[in-house]
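The material for today's practical consists of a large collection of protein records. Read left to right, the backbone structure tokens trace the chain's path through space. An example says more than a description, so a record of this kind follows:
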Amino acid sequence: MTCLLIHPAALDIAAPSEPTTQTHDQQGDHAMKDLSGKTLLEQIESLSSAEDFFLFFLMPFDQQVLNVNRLHIMKRMGQYLAKADFEGMSDDDVFLEARLVLKRAYMDFVESTPLQEKVFKVFTDKQREMDAKFVDIGSLSLAAE
């Protein structure tokens, strides 16, 4: 039997306003690990899939969006978490803040595309390459002049 721990702070969270086609209840094939007896940080560190993160943080998601953008969403979440300051926060507050960070990262890719968001180096390198190929028309002159 799998035990799904629900963080007490999650019980006070209002439902997200954005529409989704699936919620964590409908993700039956993604069973969570038993996280009892672990600190919040240990619980988060033990999560392995994008679905695990969404289930743990009780965040509804569209499986199709996650299938296409999972690496981008998780990398963006990591970027946002790296900028966050959790010093002195209670576990409940850390949970809520991390949940907001996950929602923000997810919404970045619901409302945009990986190419527009440029999370990975390959996209920023490609943009630099394209910029280097661009020639401003004002810099051109006729050879006969």
Q: What stands out?
A: The first helix runs from residue 40 to 45.
